[in-house]
């Protein structure tokens, strides 16, 4: 079962949107995580700077500081500013006996982490990340060293530890991720709606074209479906309408052809039938004359049928032509020889004025037939002379065939190449139609006009090689 274009577009569009949203979400999640880790360290560093300023202001240059006062100052300073994530604060000390301990009752640091902290501090690092195997969290840590003499002149080093855990970061990351997913879903929904609208706007004119094509298949050439999309679909619509006009003209020409053909075929058949019945009934005293008439009409009928078949092949079968390189001078010369009997009978002199060899790509036999038809027409109407000349213009050559007859009437000029049109002294009415078809199949053109002296001009143009 065929799927319509709208479904195909949507089914291809949705996976693309989903894929783009998934990639965007993954990239955004990674970027947010990296950003937050960096931001956490920056926030902890900024908070440590605030605490350092408060301690400097509150304690100043006191040599002996009460431990409780020291802790109170630190805790108050920690409450002054909360930058970004919630941070925690602990104070660790290292006594003269190198004993490291936390000053907080609910310390998150066990002895192993305190040792790790001390090692990092001794290496001069003030911001770093360590992992606690106990709770499997990472700790983002900033160290603020405080060097004072406290507790009865006993030298004690203090470090204020600001930290937060990956749990806090993960909570914020998950919150942002949920918001991001919600935004992506909304964007995806909007994109699908836009995709559906786009698909329908794309298929609507195509459906119109399909309906138009269906009407054409039923030979409805008159209804017009205008499409104004300003793109290739509009061009397709214009091409379709052009094709419709061509089909309409062809259909009408075929109807005229059948009407004319039936009329032309009926005339000799009627004559043959009438004479045959007369012979049967014995109404003719001179049977020889009746038989001659039957033979003449039969030959005329045969010629007409042959020309109809020949014209049909010319217009429908490309393989009917055997193209090769031919010399135009020699080709026209052969055509002149073939009409010599007709020209001699009418005492018409045919003058061929072509000096140089001119090569064209042609089916020699058929093109000779085309020139024979032209020359035969000229001989029927010429007084005494027919001139054939060639004029070359860049890659084109123009063969000009002129006679000294009375020229064409206005009706002749308009209808000369129409099927079954017979001018004065015409034969079957197909000769010039066949000639034009042959020349067109060779990529050439044929035009007719009257010359200044009153005779007829045939101008045939070909591309040379």
TrEMBL record:
Enzyme category, top tier: transferase
Catalytic activity: ATP + protein L-histidine = ADP + protein N-phospho-L-histidine
InterPro entries noted in UniProt: HAMP_dom, HATPase_C_sf, HATPase_dom, His_kinase_dom, HisK_dim/P_dom, HisK_dim/P_sf, HssS/ArlS-like, Sig_transdc_His_kin-like_C
Subcellular location(s) of the protein: Cell membrane
Transmembrane segments: 9-32, 179-202
Gene Ontology cellular-component annotations: plasma membrane
Domain HAMP: 200-252
Histidine kinase domain mapped to chain residues: 260-465
EC numbers: 2.7.13.3
Entry keywords, A to Z: ATP-binding, Cell membrane, Kinase, Membrane, Nucleotide-binding, Phosphoprotein, Transferase, Transmembrane, Transmembrane helix, Two-component regulatory system
Pfam families to which the protein is assigned, alphabetical: HAMP, HATPase_c, HisKA
An example Gene Ontology molecular-function term: ATP binding
Location (main, coarse): membrane
Record bears the keyword Chloroplast: no
Membrane topology: Multi-pass membrane protein
Full protein name: histidine kinase
The species this protein was found in: Vallitalea guaymasensis
Taxonomic path: Bacteria, Bacillati, Bacillota, Clostridia, Lachnospirales
């Amino acid at each position: 079962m065929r799927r319509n274009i709208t479904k195909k577009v949507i089914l291809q569009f949705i996976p693309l949107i989903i894929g783009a949203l998934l990639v965007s979400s993954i990239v955004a999640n990674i970027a947010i995580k990296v950003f937050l880790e960096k931001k956490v360290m920056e926030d902890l560093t900024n908070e440590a700077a605030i605490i350092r300023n408060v301690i400097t202001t509150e304690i100043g240059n006191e040599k002996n500081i009460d431990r409780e006062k020291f802790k109170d100052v630190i805790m108050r300073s920690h409450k002054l500013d909360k930058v970004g994530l919630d941070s925690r604060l602990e104070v660790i000390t290292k006594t003269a006996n190198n004993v490291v301990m936390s000053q907080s009752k609910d310390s998150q640091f066990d002895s192993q982490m305190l040792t790790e902290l001390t090692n990092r501090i001794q290496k001069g690092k003030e911001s770093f990340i360590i992992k606690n195997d106990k709770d499997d969290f990472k700790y983002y840590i900033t160290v603020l060293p405080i060097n004072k003499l406290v507790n009865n002149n006993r030298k004690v080093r203090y470090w204020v530890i600001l930290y937060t855990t990956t749990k806090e970061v993960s909570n914020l990351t998950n919150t942002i991720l949920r918001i991001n997913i919600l935004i992506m879903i909304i964007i995806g929904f909007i994109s699908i709606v836009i995709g559906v609208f786009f698909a329908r706007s794309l298929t609507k004119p195509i459906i119109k074209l399909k309906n138009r094509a269906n009407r054409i298949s039923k030979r409805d050439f008159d209804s017009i479906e205008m499409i104004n999309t300003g793109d290739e679909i509009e061009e397709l619509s214009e091409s379709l309408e052009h094709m419709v006009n061509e089909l309409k003209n062809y259909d009408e020409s075929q109807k005229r052809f059948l009407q004319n053909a039936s009329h032309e075929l009926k005339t000799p058949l009627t004559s043959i039938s009438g004479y045959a019945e007369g012979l049967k009934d014995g109404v003719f005293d001179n049977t020889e004359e009746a038989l001659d008439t039957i033979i003449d009409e039969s030959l005329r009928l045969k010629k007409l049928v042959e020309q109809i078949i020949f014209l049909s092949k010319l217009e429908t079968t490309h393989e009917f032509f055997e193209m090769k390189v031919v010399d135009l001078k020699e080709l026209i010369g052969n055509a002149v020889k073939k009409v010599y009997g007709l020209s001699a009978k009418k005492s018409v002199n045919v003058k061929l004025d072509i000096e140089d060899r001119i090569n064209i790509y042609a089916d020699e036999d058929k093109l000779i037939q085309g020139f024979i038809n032209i020359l035969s027409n000229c001989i029927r109407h010429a007084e005494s002379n027919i001139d054939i000349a060639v004029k070359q213009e860049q890659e084109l050559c123009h063969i000009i065939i002129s006679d000294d007859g009375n020229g064409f009437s206005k009706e002749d000029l308009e209808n000369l190449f129409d099927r079954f049109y017979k001018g004065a002294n015409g034969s079957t009415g197909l000769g010039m139609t066949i000639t034009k078809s042959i020349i067109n199949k060779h990529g050439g053109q044929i035009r007719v006009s009257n010359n200044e002296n009153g005779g007829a001009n045939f101008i045939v143009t070909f591309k040379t090689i």
